[in-house]
Amino acid sequence: MEAYPPEQHGDRRKRRDCTGSWQARYRDANGDQKAKNFPKKKEADAFLDAVRGAVRQGTYLDPKRGNIALEKWWEEWWPANEPKRPTTRNRKLSAWTVHIRPKWGKRKLNSLTYLELQTWVAQELKGHATQTKVLELLKMLLRDAVRDQRIPFNPAADVTKTASPPVKHPDDLTPPTTEHYALVRAHLPAWWRPVADFLEDTGLRWGEMAGTRRVFLDLEADTVKVREVVIDDRGTLRRQGIPKTAAGFRTVPLTARARTAVDTMIARLDPAATVTAVEDGMHAEELLFRSPLGGERRRVGGKLVTVEGALSRNNFRRYWIPAIEAAGIARKVTNPETGRKEWWPRVSDYRDRFASRLHEAGMSEVDVQYILGHERGGKVTWMYTHRGDQALDNARAALSEGRHLRAVS
Hints:
Elements: H1 6-9, E1 22-27, E2 33-38, H2 41-57, H3 63-66, H4 70-81, H5 86-104, H6 114-124, H7 128-147, H8 170-173, H9 178-186, H10 193-202, H11 206-210, E3 217-218, E4 223-226, E5 229-233, E6 236-240, E7 250-253, H12 256-269, E8 297-300, E9 303-306, H13 313-326, E10 331-334, E11 341-344, H14 349-360, H15 365-372, H16 379-384, H17 391-400
Antiparallel strand pairs: 1-2, 3-4, 4-7, 5-6, 8-9, 10-11
Region (Disordered): 1-36
Organism: Streptomyces shenzhenensis
Protein name: Site-specific integrase
């Protein structure tokens, strides 16, 4: 319009899409007409040749579909890929909100390149664990953008972690001894001693112990079935019917001390032997282990509510840390990845010590895996070794032999 004014060269309409001298028009794989403008005819012809070939071969991608911000793509992608497990969901949300969105949320999908993503991982993502969880999510996000025909390839596919796995001193990997735990137990308040005894003699994870219901106990056979867990969903305790892996569904023997801990909690709380569905909510009255406040009426926000009392690992630490300090075994350990100071021993070290006791007693690897709820230890071991029918009796004997069991007062 500027080069050929209408008053000199005749009246004509103004075209918004005419930004070049030549317009290449074509139909995409859906039959919709598309157009792109070029300053020279040979450029338009070359573009048409390439596009028509891609349409015939089924490799054509509409450039506009990749011209979308990563955060907009996330809004479309997340509802179809949101994990059902709260712990997995929260981990992915944390990776997105803390690391990926602030850096790349405004960028177009088709503008991301391998080199800038690799540089970001190497220079800005600190720690092996952080790089692992962030790269896992980013690669999934961009992989599905390729599948949705928004970009031709995944620019993060070959991006690698640059941080090395943390290396800990052997002293920090060795679980406390039985004598250490006896000292810690002596300094725990009386209410929490059955919890410590049960963890030490069953090897259950914290969430598995907290999710143990009376109906899961077989007091005639002295066993407990692991069927549910209690998880911390961003500060809210929730009931979940799926352990960490499918192997988490298992039956664990009760030693004399673990049975005493069970009897003590039954005498204290008399948990209900009813069977409720996970979808019905916590139903804390069925839980074997609860806090001292479980069942009490407290005023919260001007309303009287019943305290459920489901056990929280963070609340237990309020008693655990003073106990390990009073026992004289506590020490601060620097996390090699985050640089934060952490207490040793941890509550989870009960499980490590439990596994050590089974191995020291000479139990087969496949039996140890079953009792601990591990999916598998080594591929060869798992393929060519079968769990013995005597696994429960072997574990009970391994945990009880040569030990003086203490009753819970």
